[in-house]
Design brief:
Layout (H helix, E strand, L loop, with lengths): L3 H10 L2 H11 L1 H8 L2 H4 L14 E6 L5 H15 L4 E6 L2 H9 L16 E3 L4 E3 L5 E6 L13 E5 L7 H10 L8 E6 L5 H7 L4 E6 L9 H11 L3 H6 L15 H6 L11 E7 L7 E9 L5 E6 L2 E2 L3 H14 L4 E5 L4 H10 L6 E4 L5 H13 L3 E3 L4 H7 L16 H15 L12
Parallel strand pairs: 1-7, 1-8, 2-5, 2-6, 6-7, 9-13, 11-15, 13-14
Antiparallel strand pairs: 3-4, 4-5, 9-10, 10-11, 10-12
Helix pairs in contact: 12-13, 14-16
């Protein structure tokens, strides 16, 4: 097998049995050299910027992305290049610093090159590299332990877990002052804590990292299982995709509350179903199309987000007609301000016998959304599935009347509000229902 990147690609392309055979044929010494060839194994998002004017590199990554390996390789190379360096290794606690950063499967001892002798003294939390550079372990739960020591470089692992994150980080950075280019690497799965958000917005910070799926070396079976279990949820987007998801102050919907109101079940036989539509103001805009229903006991459910973008009025109106037929809806509720009549015209042209209610937005989006938010808060409305784009918009609506979510307008959220308002907060006359022939 050829060495370097080409060899890794050959190994990844091979069937499991063939890959095992290739590794066995290498022999112990050659295998160790092959596995230690970091340039051959590194993947997108693991490489730190070279030659740039930065002080902190923030590597936000999902579980299994390869953050620990990247951190250990970076520190190891710094130790080779700077024999007299003093290096800080900071984790959530000293046990994790030892078990993950130093002794772990992808830690500093594991990534040492063949022939590199290292002296690790667990009782002192002190690691001496072959070059003579020294690394010291610290706990992010004891900020005062970082008050005083000075370092050339620092590796901060899982900062989002540190109990004294802000104080510990501040003390670490105050002591990061040795040499001409003191630098720190933060490797962490994101959580919206103050310290992490401050680092993101700080001067001299660069970004790296990526989702779990960016690592071609992790188990496909494990990745698939995690996506099946957590894909689309706040936990999944945070822990697998490496997204920093935070609640806005004064948000109508908070992330934790959304998770609590998720049934995880898609209901196909609600006694009453409505398709909410928020037409776009232009061809480039998004047409919000959200299907909601009520069950026999009265609660409302968000059943589907079928929103589309970049279509002509006839194009998105036909998507509305298709959604109504697929879900056997009783009614379409469309905002008339931006061409709602087109929805009615296209439905009529398609011979769909379905009431279309055109509503006018006399109030602002937040004023319309507030009563619907109260339905979720009181347990009368639920998300029957996972709708990340819709949920991002809902969590971007705040009580001060502003929208802070993705895009320029909460089209999906507005469509959901129209549908649930019709179902839960308006009158419920008997209506015909679409059935396929």
């Amino acid at each position: 097998m050829k060495p370097g990147k080409e060899g890794v690609e050959t190994l990844l392309a091979a069937e499991p049995e063939e890959a095992d055979r290739i590794l066995e044929e290498l022999g112990a010494d050659a295998l160790k050299r092959f596995l230690a060839d970091w340039p051959a194994w590194v993947h997108a998002g693991q490489e730190l910027p070279e030659g740039e004017d930065w002080q902190v590199c923030l590597m936000l990554g999902g579980r299994g992305f390869g953050k620990t390996r990247a951190g250990a390789e970076w520190i190891s190379q710094l130790a080779r290049d700077h024999p007299g360096a003093s290096i800080a290794l900071v984790a959530a606690n000293v046990d994790e610093a030892r078990e993950v950063m130093v002794e772990g499967r992808s830690g500093l001892l594991a990534v040492a090159r063949p022939g590199e002798e290292m002296l690790w003294e667990p009782s002192r939390g002190r690691l001496e590299f072959a070059s003579g550079a020294l690394a010291f372990t610290y706990s992010g739960a004891h900020a005062d332990s970082l008050r005083g020591p000075d370092h050339h470089f620092a590796w901060a692992d899982e900062l989002a877990k540190w109990k004294q994150a802000q104080d510990a980080w501040d003390n670490l950075m105050l002591g990061l002052r040795l040499g001409d280019t003191p630098r720190a690497l933060v490797t962490t799965t994101p959580r919206a804590i103050t310290a992490l958000k401050a680092i993101i917005g700080g001067e001299g910070t660069v970004r790296a990292g990526g989702p779990m799926s960016a690592n071609p070396h992790s188990s496909e079976r494990w990745r698939a299982a995690m996506i099946r279990k957590h894909g689309g949820t706040r936990l999944g987007r945070q822990e697998l995709e490496g997204e920093l998801i935070e609640d806005l102050e004064g948000a109508l919907w908070e992330r934790e509350a959304v998770e609590k109101q998720r049934t995880g079940t898609v209901l196909y036989d609600c006694p009453r179903i409505v398709v909410g539509v928020d037409p776009p103001a232009s061809v480039e805009g998004t047409c919000g199309i959200v299907v909601c229903g009520t069950d026999a006991d009265g609660p409302g459910y968000v059943l589907a987000d079928l929103s589309v973008a970049g279509l002509s009025p006839e194009g998105w109106a036909r998507k509305v007609a298709a959604a109504a037929e697929a879900w056997r809806a009783h009614r379409v509720v469309a905002e008339a301000n931006n061409g709602g009549k087109m929805v009615e015209a296209v439905l009529r042209g398609a011979d769909v016998n379905l009431p279309v209610k055109l509503v006018h937005a006399a109030e602002g989006k937040v004023a319309r959304a507030a009563p619907v938010a109260a339905l979720f808060e009181s347990g009368r409305a639920w998300f029957a599935g996972r709708f990340p784009a819709l949920e991002d918009e809902l969590c971007g609506l705040t009580w001060d009347g502003r929208y802070h979510g993705p895009g320029t307008s909460p089209d999906r959220a507005d469509a959901m509000v129209w549908a649930l308002t019709e179902l839960m907060l308006g009158k419920e006359p008997a209506e015909p229902r679409i059935r396929r022939l």
